[in-house]
Amino acid sequence: MTTFSPAEIAAAVPVDEAPRRSRANIAGIVISVLVGAFLIFDVVGKLTRPQAVIEGMAKLGFPIEQATVMGVVLLTCVVVYAIPRTAVLGALGITAYLGGAVTANMRIDAPLGSTILFAVYLGVFMWIGLVLRRPELLKVVGLRR
């Protein structure tokens, strides 16, 4: 019976190299983290209800009790977005949430560039980050073969 030393076993067993991340993938992760951090900041505001959130909800015409519901919905979407396997589903939920923000701000005639379109900018930024992380999404929308 032959015995092998741990060094011989380690040398004989191929070690799987960790997949290398491209610069685009790293940029996508950074963008996704920034978007996620901003959205978590929004969630914290909705759940803790500081005076600025109370005033903002009143200005938009929402009862303050709905802040908790909005915060929980957004938190759920962000968590789903943060999980790589379900990121697209989370991005769709966040897109719907941001669409509601656009509509609410349009209803009160908020400034277009700085307020109404901010949610659009954030959504576009989020999708850019996701596509950089998962370039195969371009095939789904027909932008790449």
Automatic annotation (TrEMBL):
Coiled coil stretches, renumbered? none
GO CC field: membrane
The main location class comes to membrane
Spans traversing the lipid bilayer: 26-44, 64-83, 88-106, 112-132
Membrane association type? Multi-pass membrane protein
One Pfam assignment: DoxX_2
Name its cellular compartments: Membrane
Which UniProt key words apply to this protein?
Membrane, Transmembrane, Transmembrane helix
What's the protein name?
DoxX family protein
